[in-house]
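TNase-like domain-containing protein
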Amino acid sequence: MALMSRKKCIAFGIFLLNVLLPAGAQADSIEGKVSVIDGSSFQIVESGLTVKLFGVSACALTQRAHYQGISWPCGAVAAGWLTENTLGYTIRCIKEGSGGYATVLGRCFLPDGSDVAKKALTEGMAIAARAEGTLIVPEYGSFEKIARSKSLGIWSSTFKLDGHTYRKSFTQ
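Tokens:
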């Protein structure tokens, strides 16, 4: 009888390790193939979970910017850029918070380890998000500055984002 109790204890311990430990480990990060929603968010295909890139903003999907008086679809371009850079890859995201129903705020990485948000900032496809004028992720400011100084992507144009109007000459 004691042997039976010991087996039950071991089986229960293994059950707990297999059920509880992975759930805790997975609570901090998620990964999978993604389907792009807009220039700064996508859905993890396997789970259906929506992830918004933490610390950046991009033009809304239907938004337009203006370059030398010519309107162009900055939102569609940003979504296209994100699609081009993530399609077919397993993307790993570290959870930074919650953005509402079924949305996770995450720092996301390509298989080579590069930070998707940093890449978007460097190529002018996003801006570093701010809360009351302060960068949410301080290190992202330098990547935005690179794109701005080279007039890349949206920094070649005039556009509105998060209630502010930005111009090619915008400085902060």
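The first helix runs from residue 2 to 26.
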